[in-house]
Amino acid sequence: MNVQMTVRIPDDVAEFVDQQVSDGAKSRAEVITRALKREQRRRRAQRDALIYAATEPDRELEGFVSAAAGQLDLTSLD
After folding, report:
1. Which candidate, 45, 40, 36, places its Cα nearest to that of 73?
2. 16-63 residue pLDDT tens
3. pTM score, whole prediction
4. Which residues contact 21 (CB under 8 A, 6 or more apart)?
5. Residue 56: other Cβ atoms inside 10 A
């Protein structure tokens, strides 16, 4: 199911979205949906990294935790 929404975005963001459409994206909706899904994945990964960082060290996961923690702001789950 899809929900239709009306949103206001700054002019420069609208220009970026329209440029993506000009460059081959199917529609504005596709560009915005793709960006929001990417943000969902980023937040899930951030939560996972916080969970891993808060648990006892696991030798098999140490490399992953170090890499993930080094790329995230661990002070915020916004």
Report:
1. 45
2. 999 999 999 999 999 999 999 999 999 999 999 898 788 887 777 778
3. 0.65
4. 27, 28, 31
5. 4
Alpha helices in 8-27 (DSSP H): 11-22
Amino acid sitting at position 60: E
Cβ-in-10-Å burial (0-12, 13-18, 19+) of 5 comes to exposed
Distance between CA atoms of residues 38 and 30, nearest Å? 12
pLDDT at 78 over 60: no
Instruction: Indicate the DSSP class of residue 72.
Output: S
CB 29 within 8 A of CB 20: no
* Interatomic CA distance for residues 57 and 54, integer angstroms: 9
Asked if residues 46 and 77 have their Cβ atoms less than 8 Å apart, the reply is yes
